[in-house]
Amino acid sequence: MSFLFSTRSKTFRPKKNIPEGTHQYDLMKHAERTLGSGNLRQAVALPEGEELNEWVAVNTVDFFNQINMLYGTITEFCTADKCPVMSAGPKYEYHWADGQTVKKPIKCSAPRYIDFLMSWVQDQVDDEALFPSKIGVPFPKNFLTIAKTILKRLFRVYAHIYHQHFQEVVGLKEEAHLNTSFKHFIFFVQEFNLIDRKELAPLQELIERLLGK
Q: Which CATH superfamily is domain 23-210 in?
């Protein structure tokens, strides 16, 4: 199944792989190894001697790729007709604004919202001034603020999938992959206080269940 999808004129592609030979590639491999151990608390912890910004950057790109692929499997079910608003259950509706090209929040269908969101995140992670890939190039002073906004918005895609498309996910036998990805995401954002608790409200019961609380 192709994970590339198009909701407007262009095809959206996941972020290209972090290049081999870079320190960020080594960090990504470290994350993969610790994830393989099954201990998520250990997997998300900042490796000894590493810089927080770089660790957050590598993981943010990884979550972006994961969510993009997960959403790519259910795009045929997430249409403007079936999902005319971007919601996470009856209590939560999201309107799109990026503060630059769209300053006043607009109401739009879920696929259009997610297309806006993914394109916006792609622009952020591809910007060398925000996500430097070269050793020695400093992260901007407001990097964690930028990362928090990205992760807050990516959470909304998880919330929409769980509330509106979980039956389709089960039908595709993807629920284990979705749950593992989301659990990893939650452990990570909670480890470094990256998303306010109120933003997580649409999936609070699920979060408590996954975390065994």
A: MOB kinase activator (1.20.140.30)
